[in-house]
Amino acid sequence: MNKNVLLIGATSDVAKACAYIYAEKQYNLVLAGRKPKELKVLADDIKIRHNVSCDYLEVDLLDSNAHAEAINSLSEIPSITLCFAGYLGDHDLAIKDWTEAERIIQTNYTGVVSFVNLIANHYEEQGKGSIAVLSSVAGERGRQSNYLYGSAKAGLTAYLSGLRNRLASKGVHVASIIPGFIDTRMTEELDLPKPLTASPQQVAKAVFSAVKNKKNVVYVLWMWRYIMLIIKAVPEPLFKKLKL
Ligand SMILES: NC(=O)c1ccc[n+]([C@@H]2O[C@H](COP(=O)([O-])OP(=O)(O)OC[C@H]3O[C@@H](n4cnc5c(N)ncnc54)[C@H](OP(=O)(O)O)[C@@H]3O)[C@@H](O)[C@H]2O)c1
């Protein structure tokens, strides 16, 4: 396997933390995202600090028709693909405005699936490769405050489960990373409970460990697994009355 990693949504705070972890361990990187200027600055910094190869690739997940061309433009497809892309969006706007709702659904579900499908098919042909994708605890049960984002993440979690099931016998590893709250640009306007909030570095380390140890489903802070077990166990007649 080549020691190369492709990071999608590489401008995310978590992706940046993860990129430095891999670079420190002398992996070569391809940073994929929508902002080439920002990616170039990041790539240059990584190259200087860690003396690895670090390229960047312009990819907009909302433009599915361009995904194959972007992947084919790589001189070599990295053996590890990590996806950090996501869009929380404005839920209150989205319940009234389909453009915002569609952007939430397409960024978190259709766009990621379109790109990851192509990588997965390549890995299947090669009989090797590792894929790790960030979904969310928001996908475990729909709540009134963010069910459009949550439903897209629910679809993504189900997709990853199916992909893992399909590729397990083909030598390809698929990890579902299910964070709770993370202290990033996405949540900067939210008042998050500190003990339940992971840092980007904690999530990045969990991603690295998931790939290295071929883990299947990873809840980044251990308590989230149990919180979600409880939330999922609340009977629907009671759940529908909760302000969540
Ligand atoms: N923060 C949390 O509390 C939390 C909790 C659970 C799960 N997650 C998930 O964790 C992942 C990382 O999130 P984060 O908190 O690090 O958020 P973030 O800093 O907002 O990063 C989101 C990333 O997605 C990229 N992206 C958005 N739309 C895109 C598109 N159309 N094409 C390509 N890239 C696109 C963004 O690129 P631009 O720079 O171009 O916008 C950015 O790199 C996401 O999947 C998120 O849903 C986050």
Give the CATH topology.
Rossmann fold
Distance between the termini: 45 Å
* Spatial strand sequence of the major β-sheet: 3-2-1-4-5-6-9
CATH class: Alpha Beta
Summary keywords:
244 residues; alpha/beta; Rossmann fold; seven-stranded parallel beta sheet; two-stranded parallel sheet; 9 helices; 9 strands; globular; binds NADP nicotinamide-adenine-dinucleotide phosphate
Structure description:
By secondary structure, the chain is α/β, with parallel strands linked by helices. It has one domain: NAD(P)-binding Rossmann-like Domain (Rossmann fold), CATH 3.40.50. The chain has nine helices and nine strands. The strands form two sheets. It has a seven-stranded parallel sheet, sandwiched between helices. Helix 2 links the parallel strand 2 and strand 3. Helix 1 runs parallel beside helix 2 and helix 1 crosses helix 7. Bound molecules: NADP nicotinamide-adenine-dinucleotide phosphate. The site of NADP nicotinamide-adenine-dinucleotide phosphate has 27 residues, from helix 1, helix 5 and strand 7.
